[in-house]
Amino acid sequence: MKPVFVSDLQADQSVTTFFLVCAKEVRATREGKCYLRLELGDRTGTIEARMWSGFEGDAVSFDRDDFIKVQARVESYRNRLQVTIDKVRRAEDSEVDASDYFPHTGEDVDQLYAKLLEVVASIGDPWLRRLLDAVVRDPDLVSRLKRAPAAKIMHHAYLGGLLEHMMSLCGLCRVVAGHYPETDTDLLLTGAILHDLGKVDELYYERSFGYTDQGQMLGHILIEYERIAKKIDAIDGFPPNLKILVQHMILSHHGQYEFGSPKLPMFREALMLHYLDDLDSKMGAVRASLASDKGEGNWTAWNSALDRRFLRVNLFRGAEETEAADVPAQAAMDRPRTSSEKD
Fold first, then answer.
1. Quick one: pLDDT at residue 343?
2. Average pLDDT over residues 68-74
3. Alpha-carbon distance values, 133 to 121, 141, 274 (Å)
4. What is the mean pLDDT of residues 18-44?
5. Model confidence pTM above 0.85
6. Residue 128 CA to chain centroid, in angstroms?
């Protein structure tokens, strides 16, 4: 295990440790002085780093997605930690344990995939079942689906996160559809399975997480829209109006224009998909904040995705529950004793 993780870093700390290079570029200050800017990471997070001098020779020895060993100082700048590097060198793969660097779902991805196949098999509509079966069994897709994150930062941002998010959303859809019996459950589950499928191509996740050229220029909504359209067109006799419904769910699942949605949800299941997807995404982000050791007292560190801190309710109620536990004991001491107890 590596000696120091990103989550361990504190201001005014000197460290010698290994990191994964998530981004690398040479920049210039306003005065024209060049410096090396890096984004360094491990499985606990990322941090920005700078090397102000002596980097010209060292910088060419490594690139993005390489492991490096640094001797550095941790500083606080505008209330954010960053690293100033004094020495750096490329590290060999044999010097590091890959599990220290790549965040991964805690679920078994093969079991998640098996559950996905069960959901597909449960779909009653034969056209939707044929479409989903063609998608989730596509040999070009399966290995990437098991590995892809659901996002770079916002939620389920770890290997296997997309499949975990997909199955969590399917579970939500079934619960809510049971509450609203007028729901077309087959259609809603189809949207849950297909809505983020373009992220297997939008995101780069070989080591660090980022956006592919295709992802930068098109985005996952358009990528998956085109993929699903081709799958539908390959099914002879697929009902044209059903195709429109499926395509609309893909196009509208972000819910609002300002969130990158080309269309607003315009039928019941499309609206339900948007809100359930939004809920699962936000709960994933909250879970990540609460799982982190960062923060002060009863509060997590600032969650930039949700623009707030979160209260650790178990700690907040801890003192209250301790006091409550003492009440019965005190009450027993204060109550009058019976004659038998006096004897």
1. 45
2. 94
3. 8, 12, 23
4. 90
5. no
6. 28
pLDDT at position 329 is 53
Q: What is the pLDDT of residue 213?
A: 83
Per-residue pLDDT tens over the stretch 289-333: 898 877 889 999 888 888 899 999 999 998 666 566 665 555 555
What does the DSSP assignment read for 250-316? HHHTT-SGGGT-SS---SHHHHHHHHHHHHHHHHHHHHHHHHS--EETTEEPPBTTTTB--B-HHHH
Tokens of 136: 């989730």
The residues, any chain, with a CB within 8 Å of residue 17's CB and separated by 6 or more, are 2, 3, 4, 69, 70
Q: Which residues pair with 17 in a beta bridge?
A: 70
| Rounded Cα distance, 217 and 203, in Å | 12
Q: How far is CA 199 from CA 166, 195, 212, in A?
A: 12, 9, 10
Amino acid identity of residue 158, one-letter, is Y
Helix (H, G, I), strand (E, B) or coil at 318: helix
Closest CA to 232 of 144, 121, 132: 132
| Alpha-helical regions (H) of the chain | 55-59, 109-122, 126-136, 142-147, 161-179, 185-194, 199-202, 213-233, 240-252, 268-291, 313-316, 318-334, 339-342
Q: How far is it, in rounded angstroms, from Cα 14 to Cα 43? A: 20
Tokens standing for residue 38 = 């890096």
Q: Look at the alpha carbons of 151, 201, 44, 80 in this order and tell me if their dihedral is positive or negative.
A: negative
Mean pLDDT to the nearest integer, 188-193: 98
**Amino acid occupying residue 145:** L
Residue pair 153/127 in contact (Cβ under 8 Å)? The answer is no
Q: Which residues contact 222 (CB under 8 A, 6 or more apart)?
A: 198
- Lowest average pLDDT, out of 55-59, 223-227, 312-316, goes to 55-59
Matching residue, tokens 């805690």: 106
